[in-house]
């Protein structure tokens, strides 16, 4: 198990992500928690945007997401962390962030998942540009 983190310009295959995640699980997992982030309207800057560009701010967003995942995995003693973030052009209702974590208990899994999502947003790994 451990941490898997990557970016993609392709639409998400949520079932494929979950299958890949579950295949790596073992008997110690009591709970799997996931976050599925989507592009929503109205926009923060351009209320009725036509598209959104997700651009890397740092040279290696995968490395930064991997580090966030490792830190939270160690902090909570999680079994597994899986993080995928879209980059490039996306539109309203598109999937943009998928995080799945597993742990022995649900309280640890919920806390770990929330901390990963918060850390990714706080780190400003990607710049979100709303295009009119």
TrEMBL record:
<comment type="similarity">
    <text>Belongs to the MoaE family.</text>
</comment>
<comment type="subunit">
    <text>Heterotetramer of 2 MoaD subunits and 2 MoaE subunits. Also stable as homodimer. The enzyme changes between these two forms during catalysis.</text>
</comment>
<dbReference type="Pfam" id="PF02391">
    <property type="entry name" value="MoaE"/>
</dbReference>
<protein>
    <recommendedName>
        <fullName>Molybdopterin synthase catalytic subunit</fullName>
        <ecNumber>2.8.1.12</ecNumber>
    </recommendedName>
</protein>
<comment type="pathway">
    <text>Cofactor biosynthesis; molybdopterin biosynthesis.</text>
</comment>
<dbReference type="InterPro" id="IPR003448">
    <property type="entry name" value="Mopterin_biosynth_MoaE"/>
</dbReference>
<dbReference type="InterPro" id="IPR036563">
    <property type="entry name" value="MoaE_sf"/>
</dbReference>
<dbReference type="GO" id="GO:0006777">
    <property type="term" value="P:Mo-molybdopterin cofactor biosynthetic process"/>
</dbReference>
<dbReference type="GO" id="GO:0030366">
    <property type="term" value="F:molybdopterin synthase activity"/>
</dbReference>
């Amino acid at each position: 198990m451990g941490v898997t983190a990557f970016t993609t310009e392709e639409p998400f295959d949520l079932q494929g992500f979950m299958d890949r995640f579950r295949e790596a699980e073992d008997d110690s997992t009591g709970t799997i928690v996931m976050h599925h982030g989507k592009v929503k309207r109205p926009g923060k800057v351009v209320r009725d945007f036509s598209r959104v560009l997700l651009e890397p701010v740092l040279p290696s967003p995968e490395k930064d997401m991997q580090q966030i995942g490792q830190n939270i995995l160690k902090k909570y003693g999680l079994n597994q962390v899986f993080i995928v973030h879209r980059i490039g052009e996306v539109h309203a209702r598109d999937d943009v962030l998928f995080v799945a974590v597993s742990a022995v208990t649900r309280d640890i899994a919920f806390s770990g998942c929330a901390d990963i999502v918060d850390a990714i947003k706080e780190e400003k790994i990607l710049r979100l540009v709303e295009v009119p």
